[in-house]
Amino acid sequence: MDNQMRILLVEDNPADAELSLHALRKEKVGNQIDLATDGEEALDFVFCRGRFADRNMNDQPRLILLDLKLPKLDGLQVLREIKNHPQTRAIPVVILTSSKEERDMVESYRLGVNSYIQKPVDFGQFRETVKQLGLYWLVVNQPPPTKAFASN
């Protein structure tokens, strides 16, 4: 894994995706931001399948921002797959969702999510939340050592 500050944003709502991308880019959080618009595309990206087959499996995102309510595969299924695979389980995954369901939060933590954040409704608060998320996970937090991604 290189030192690039790559973020994978998994969001199907075009308005929320644009807000998140704008906030991350405006604050220069991450130098590579990839967008997946459904759960299947997110897993294809992470596991280098389908149209991402040429991507290097060792070039994983430093952070995954994951919505729960997604087409094809929901966010919990995506989280389960990422956290069950030895090469990807150490990638920090932050649920960024509008869901207020306690069961979603409980299941997310049970599956190994690193953080669970409810999207603020206010535009300014949403932008600030995304900015702070990116700064914390990419600048303040120490990433896992490369050997944390080694196959067992």
Keywords summarizing the entry:
single chain; 152 residues; alpha/beta; five-stranded parallel sheet; 5 helices; 5 strands
Q: Total number of helical segments? A: 5
Report the mean per-residue pLDDT as an integer: 87
Overall radius of gyration: 14 Å
* Poorly predicted runs: none
Distance separating the two termini? 17 Å
Overall helicity: 25-40%
State which percent range the strand residues make up. 15-25%
Looking at how many chains there are and whether they match, the oligomeric state comes to single chain
* Count of DSSP strands: 5
Q: Which descriptor suits the 3D outline?
A: globular
With strands numbered from the N-terminus, the spatial order across the biggest sheet is 2-1-3-4-5
Instruction: Determine the structural class based on helices, strands and strand pairing.
Output: alpha/beta
Question: What is the ordering of alpha helices and beta strands?
Answer: EHEHEHEHEH
Largest sheet: 5 strands, parallel
Structural description of this entry:
- With 152 residues, the protein is of the alpha/beta class.
- The chain has helices at residues 14-26, 39-46, 75-84, 102-111, 123-140; strands at residues 6-10, 32-36, 63-66, 93-97, 115-118.
- It has a five-stranded parallel β-sheet with strand order 2-1-3-4-5, sandwiched between helices.
- Helix 1 packs across helix 5 (123-140), helix 2 (39-46) runs parallel beside helix 3 (75-84) and helix 3 runs parallel beside helix 4 (102-111).
- It starts with 5 loop residues before the first strand and ends in a 12-residue tail after the last helix.
